[in-house]
Amino acid sequence: MNVGEFLLVSVLAVPALGALAVAATPRDRAARIVGTVAAALTLVAAASLVAGRNAAWSTYAPQDAAGAVRPWHSIDLPWVPGLELRFHLGVDGISWPLVVLTALLTLLCCGYSLWRVPGGGDGRALVALLLVVEVGILGTFLAFDLVLFFLFFEVVLLPMYAIIVGWGGDGTDPAALDARRRAGRKFALYTLFGSVLLLVGVYVVVAAAGTADIVALTGGTELSRTTQLAAFTLLALAFAVKSPLWPLHSWLPDAHTQAPTVGSVLLAGVLLKMGTYGLIRVAVGVAPEGARWAAPVLGVLAVAAILIGSLVCLAQSELKRLIAYSSVGHMGFVLLGVATLTATGIQAALIGNVAHGIITGLLFFLAGAIKDRTHTGALSELSGLRETAPRLSGLLAFAAVASLGLPGLAGFWGEAFAVVAAVESGGALWTTLAVLAAIGGALTAAYLLRLLRRVTHGEPSPAVAALGPKLAGAELVAWAPLVLLALAVGLAPTLVLGVAEAPVEALVGVVAR
Amino acid sequence: MTGVDALLLALGAVAVGSAALVVATRHLVRAGLYLVVCLGAVAGMYLVLAAELVAWVQVLIYVGAVVVLLLFAVMLTRAPIGASDDLDRSGWPAALIGGGVGLGLAALLVDAYRWTTVELPEAGTAERLGEQVFSSWVLPFEVLSVLLLSALVGAIVLSRPDIGASRDDAADDRGRSR
Amino acid sequence: MSEPSLVQAVDHVALLPAYLAAGTAVLVLLVDLLAARPPATVATAVTGAVATAVGAAAVGSGAERRTFCVGADCSYVFGGRAALVAALVALLVLGVLALSGPLLRAGNTPVGEYCFLLACSMTGGVVLGAAGDLITLIVAVEVLTLPLYVLVGLRRGSLASAEAAVTFFVVSVVATTLTLLGAALLYAVTGGLHLERLGTLLADEALLDLPLTTVAVTLVVAGLAFKVAAVPFHAWAPATYDGAPLPVAAYLSTASKLGGVVALLAVVRQALPPEVTGPVLALVAALTMTVGNLVALRQRRTVRLLAWSSVAQAGYILAPLGALALTTDAEARTAAYAAALAYAVFFVLLELAAFAGVVALRPAGADGGRLDDLRGAARRHPWVGAGLAFALIGLAGLPPGLAGLFAKVTVVRSLLGGDAGWLALVVAVNAVIGLAYYLRAAALLYAPPGDLTARVARPARAVAAALAVATVVALVVGFAPQVVLDLAGS
């Protein structure tokens, strides 16, 4: 086992073993520390995956179809030959930023849980579940085998459900409990619906091609047109539920509103990315002909998501719900980028993914902090935050501005390039879509500024008046990396695009043929 | 149409008619007696088809043992001897299903065989049957013994609620002391 | 036996598992008579079940053995698949015996007879896997089922139990009649009763076109579908499961259902033409899982929920067979049979664990009770609750219940390999419906307990052991499903 293989395995094994260790540690606080350490080690392992990548790419040649996916490191072991399942992991420029983002957000969530455990259950179980969710997400990003991908896709489902139902919501009265359970169940059922479609789609591909190896399948050279159309439809539906693409998004606002802060952060920050990543890596990669066939539909739906998400946000009166709906709009930009099937579009999708993960993660942290302090999420009861809690208010303003896509901050690149890619695609349809998406971007600015006006300005409401200006150290520690990253990615997008450029070019190379 | 055919038809008619009466009658005891007629007619058909052992087994076991047991049970449980009106539900669905299935199967078989002539095999004596059972079908025959044994034990268990209870009080104590 | 030509050489080694099972039954009866000590009786039954499982595994590890042959056709074929079924049935009997601990100790149940009847049923299961002709097959199914009529009725003084027994008895007898009639018609059409011979005979196009053949095949399949409780022959199952003592319900939904599946597989695989059975089974499978899942959504009683869910699971088991008519690829067909059997194996494992969990969480000798009785149970008994939740999640087919997940994957894969995409989608949608109630039941275990005064009784040691073993085995095959796939495909 060389260093790369070791790192790949340890990225999954460390949080998995960490979860077990947390569950086995008798004392609550000690267990949470163990979990945080495991998450930190995972981040180290995930970040060091970047080492040694150039060795693989030195022989890169875009004309070579077999080289459409060139993992930096990979490990390929047989698991269940009867089901075409191999333990095949790998990492390349498309997945690595997401892997690091996942590891980072999980670490921040675990660290945050050291300081504060949402009511409802003990912190030990929460941290263990967070780590299990991390295993599932990381596995999804790292899997280079379709069946393994599906497997990890499903791993996330129940722990996330448990986090929403066990630690979410506010209050323990039966009505709150009921709402929480309903949101959790909705999340689980919608997501499972997506995953079973994924399962069927995966085996449509596997039955036709006889292999589940994503590296071999990318380019879709061996699949007939009918198979590709069927496979892409199923896979795209599956990922559309997860992303979520309008009109399959209705689980998201409920789940976000009810989930505890750390749950929302993970949910918005990385869980949704499983859908968009899957769309790029699996659906587009394996069935490019299907992708070309469905691209206009996907583009129209993506723009519909942008517009509808923004319009709904304009009418929202609840903080977390607003941020949740804003995710629908932002993911619409990401999907629009994917739908163009151009290098620019997919790059925009990747950086949009990362940016959304950072910014929305931060926004949910802040919303959680506000809700924990004021015990309300209604915008009408939150005016005047600037007066009593200037730091919190300032951070909120920063995050909101980043989210609306101000140039120089992370949110800008994804949205701008998605629109550019649509314009570059040419034709009446794509130009129209680009214009509409730009209008959606303006609406995004409108509702986020409305949010800021309602929350930060004005006379302090009774709930806000009682706040102090202080922020806890743990909060600062959890938020600072996100703030810095939002700035860093905004100022130097090559952080993400640099590693992603070559694999995206290769992918588009085989897809466009 | 030979005499054998006529005899078969007549016996068949008796069997079907008496079977219908078994279900249709309101008298429990009469139902049992019609059953004797029905099973007897079937035994007659076996006889006509030269399956003598099967015919006698049919008479001995079904007519002789099963129906008599049934009648005994009826009498011992002091069931009403006269007509019992509450026994019947409306007969239409049953008639429809029974008639439909019967006619359907008959039509199927008639269609399948039409006027094919089948040679009767040699007489089904005890020797031939024994050969068959103990050469080709030993295994199911032996397995049936397990079935019969379990049926026997099961019947005893169900009919005597006292077996389990009385002995298990002691068992209970032992179980706890363990 | 004066004529030497009639004497056949009987391969006693092949028959060893059946001997062991039948011997267990007789021995149990003798020990009960002579020693008259319930622990000794139970110990005998346990030893017998273990011996049967070991014997089956030992005999099955060698080459396939055939005996009771007439010409090339054999009534008893003991190969890898038969060994798997025999060993599994024996192990399930072992598990059910463990679950019966509290019931037997609570009195009211005749221990000797209980163990004897279970052992008889086990004999049926062992012979069933190896049955090579229709008569042996039907007799074996009956031997498997008949003791259960009695066992279901064993909850003394319970009207539900008596009703359950009568329902079960009547339905089952009607089903057997159907199968027998079908077998007789098949004999009339072909003149053969041995499965492999029927297979060759029925490959003839002229015979297939005969309506009588279609009816005969349909009758055989329908009769056996009763035994697996497939829609529309399912109505008996929930009432029977709920009325029966809990361990017997566990046996009904595991070993008995496995028996039905094995019988159905045997006739469909070897004897009956796939062109006829395929569409019938596809329809039955789709209906079974949909109806089972939809009705299970509304259940409020624990055992009824499990019963309806096991109706739905029967649909998943039958689903791979539904692809038979659509493909002429022999490899895809073999994969379909293997997938059905593999799913059945995964299923019985998880189902046994689920029942073990319910038995452990209920007072000794009680019935399944309402779902609400389990509210917060996992907080009182963390390990048992976790085991039950694991089994339920596994039945829903989600991680961490990897065994259940791989079971579903196996089915979907074989369906898509056999070009039955629509059925795969039906399975997929049903998995979502299934999650709704499995999740509700599992979440209920962790809900805040409403009744804080509920008695916290320690689950019986044997029951806890059965739950632990079933869970561990489910975990292991969850990580190494290839073991099951290999066994089922052999």
Explain what this protein looks like in three dimensions.
Chain B: Pfam families: Oxidored_q3 (PF00499). Chain B: It is an enzyme of class 7 (translocase). Chain B: Belongs to the complex I subunit 6 family. Chain B: It is a multi-pass membrane protein. The complex is a heterotrimer of chains A (513), B (178) and C (490). Chain A is mainly alpha-helical. Helix content of chain A is 76%, strand content 3%. Chain A has 22 helices and 2 strands. A two-stranded antiparallel sheet of chain A has the order 1-2. In chain A, a hairpin with a 4-residue loop joins strand 1 and strand 2 (85-91). In chain A, helix 13 (288-314) packs antiparallel against helix 14 (319-340), helix 13 (288-314) packs parallel to helix 19 (427-456) and helix 18 (410-425) packs antiparallel against helix 19 (427-456). The radius of gyration of chain A is 22 Å and the shape is globular. Chain B has 178 residues and is mostly helical. The longest helix of chain B has 25 residues, at 52-76. The radius of gyration of chain B is 23 Å and the shape is globular. Chain B starts with a helix and ends with a helix. In chain C, 67% of the residues are buried. The two termini of chain C are 38 Å apart.
